[in-house]
Design a protein that fits this description.
- The chain is an alpha/beta fold.
- It has a single domain, classed as Rossmann fold (3-Layer(aba) Sandwich), CATH 3.40.50.1580.
- Helix content is 38%, strand content 28%.
- The protein has helices at 15-24, 57-71, 128-143, 151-155, 178-190, 202-212, 230-256; strands at residues 8-12, 26-33, 36-43, 46-52, 75-84, 94-102, 124-125, 163-170, 195-199, 216-224.
- A five-stranded mixed β-barrel has the order 5-9-8-6-10, surrounded by four helices.
- The chain is globular, with a radius of gyration of 17 Å.
Length: 257
């Protein structure tokens, strides 16, 4: 199948986060490349490529490069789960990223802590237009607007769920202890970075997208508070809640393009 326009790439780290979207994909075509499986097709009338970033920054960077080089995607959107760090960010909420940093990057004293060498910056900013569309889509999904009814699927368990916008931090570690979470949040705050959520991929994707000039935006569902309960709640939350969030939000987002 030949796509008639440059596709939108939809990335997730885990298969469970993307299964709902894959089930809806029209005229699916599987492509193997760079040791990964990519799915081409259409969603909401838009040409798309679905892919799993895999877990961690290096794997995510490889997948992102493949999407750009092999498939010529015109934009990349990431959807998945994250641990909440910011005050008021609770399980069941959604964070739409405004910018990204690597919380485990430290090349001091050669460069300031968290600064990416030779880029002169610590944060990579998400595309403003895509981020605005994603925020609107997330708000609509959680508000259970009547024209789709999909919001009801994702808000029954978390009726007070909110949508936040702000900084997401990525690192090659699953932050799952209360002590580690507090230390990470405090260290970032001292450096002037008030982070809302922590995960393992998006800062790497953002850096590759900057290199190639490809717009990027990300939305993350809060599965835990990056504390001692993270390992208990994670798997069931991804399957039962986050996948529904992803489907509802991405469908609305694609309809707005």
């Amino acid at each position: 199948m030949l796509l008639t326009a440059p596709p939108t790439a939809i990335l997730s780290a885990l298969a469970q986060e993307q299964n709902g979207l894959l089930a809806l994909l029209q005229q699916p075509q599987q492509v193997r490349h760079a040791g990964r499986t990519f799915w081409q097709g259409h969603l909401q009338g838009q040409p798309v490529v679905l892919a799993l970033s895999r877990i961690g920054k290096v794997a995510a960077a490889t997948t992102t490069t493949a999407l750009i080089e092999r498939f010529g995607v015109q934009r990349i959107v990431f959807t998945g789960v994250a641990g909440g760090l910011g005050a008021g960010v609770k399980v069941g909420d959604v964070v739409v990223a405004t910018d990204f940093l690597q919380h485990d990057l430290d090349v001091s004293p050669l460069f300031p802590r968290y600064e990416v060498p030779l880029y002169g910056q610590t944060r990579f900013v998400g595309d403003a237009a895509l981020t605005a569309l994603l925020f609107t889509a997330a708000c609509g999904a959680l508000a259970h607007e009547p024209e789709t009814g999909r919001g009801g699927l994702v808000t029954q368990q978390f009726s007070g769920a909110c949508v936040h916008q702000g900084l997401i931090a990525s690192g090659d570690r699953f932050v799952s202890g209360a002590g580690e979470s507090r230390l990470l949040q405090a260290a970032l705050a001292v450096a002037g970075h008030e982070v809302l959520a922590v995960e393992m991929e998006c800062a790497a994707v953002a850096q590759v997208c900057l290199d190639y000039g490809v717009p990027f935006a990300a939305v993350r569902t809060i599965s835990d508070r990056a504390d001692d309960s993270a390992h208990v709640d994670f798997s069931s939350f991804v399957e039962q809640v986050a996948s529904r969030y992803a489907q509802a939000i991405i469908e609305r987002f694609l309809m707005s393009l």
